[in-house]
Amino acid sequence: MERRLRKELTNLIKDPPDGIVVDPDKISQNITEWTVDVKGAEGTLYQGEKFTLQFKFGSKYPFDSPQVMFVGKHVPEHPHIYSNGHICLSILSDDWSPALSVQSICLSILSMLSSCSEKKRPPDDMFYVRTASKNPKRTQWLFHDDTV
Question: Its domain of life (predicted)?
Answer without folding.
Answer: Eukaryota
